[in-house]
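Late entry, written up from scratch paper. The run itself happened at the end of the previous shift, but nothing got recorded in the book at the time, so transcribing now.
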Amino acid sequence: MSESKTPEADISFASLDLPEELQAGIRKTGFTHCTPIQGKTLPIALSGKDVAGQAQTGTGKTAAFLIATFSHLLRNPLPANQATDKNPRAVILAPTRELALQIHSDCGSLGAATGFRCQVVFGGADYDKQRDKLHAGVDVLIGTPGRFIDYLKQGVFNLNSVQVMVLDEADRMFDLGFIKDIRYVMRRLPPADMRLNLLFSATLNQKVLELAYEHMNDPVSVRIEPEKVTADKVTQAVYFPGNHEKQRLLVNLLRQVEAKRTMVFVNMKHQAEKVAVLLSANGFSASAISGDVPQNKRMRMLESFQSGELGILIATDVASRGLHIDGVTHVVNYDLPQDCEDYVHRIGRTARAGASGDAISFACESYAMTMPDIEKYIGFSIPVKPITPELLAEVTVPKMPARKRSGPSKGGAGGRGRPHSGGGQHRRR
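Output as recorded:
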């Protein structure tokens, strides 16, 4: 595996050698210049070389691999005897339903003028309806591993015509126990040197690199360091409340900053529900998203949040991966994450596309011990804000119903089509 030394120059999309159908889609989306990950990966992928890219959510990696995919398909049409083939020419695998849906949405925007048929498959949605769409034919197939493999085993489609293989958030695939599924798919594709292979991951650790060596054709490694992902336009601050002060602090702080589109992150699903009830009782439009929420409801919730109808979305780290929502003004870490990378993922929900945003963290006594590691990871000390009396003013604290005892949670990984598809459980909440 070679390492890219391409400088992070200011590259315009218009300067890239792309088919006009694709340039039209790029113009329609309003994109003009490449982000660092796009500027580094696109010239390599457009030259026909495989890419293993290190980049996190919010860096523009989705557009990077979609543009590379569409360009490759347009430049390499199927032979005449396969022109009516209904099987996918490109496969994109993602670890969660939300990410798969977002990729599908971006696929429709960027590829609007290409004529390619894009479909998405994931668990928790109508099995027969998704299968019928595949029977009608598909060029670019996006999916989560479980449901994808279900259809593959059922013979709904085959992989004989695949010219592009994209694996998004490869490190998350390992976390969620999908790696056996990924290898199952990879072994049923045409040889690696007969297709374009693109892999993206928040970290290119040893496990991910081994996967790349095994199933890609001498990929070029491209790295965008996490420090560069922490947007310059995110204003970060931290409060040090006691555990008993957090509810009042949250309510009064949200009132003070007049947050319009806010994401509040917690570490456990039951805490997400508790915070949602708290905020609703105090006049906020708030809902909690987790893997336990039915898929149709999750989609409606995200649409309401994107439209501005829902003002506050409470989420765990499981739900945060893959969420691509424009216009988030504030991110609140109600619970400080126990993993430094998760901190970067969380605050990356705001200050996108050149906008500014605020990231506020509560370092309570339960989680404050992770603050030094987070500051070391991002490379600077986060400014400490005082907790003033008005921020601890009395608020409505509703009584929560007693929690029923239950077995271990599946963590809301999403996308597992059916139980027999294998996999494991999430290692972190």
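Residues 87 and 157 are 6 Å apart (CA to CA).
(Scratch paper discarded after transcription.)
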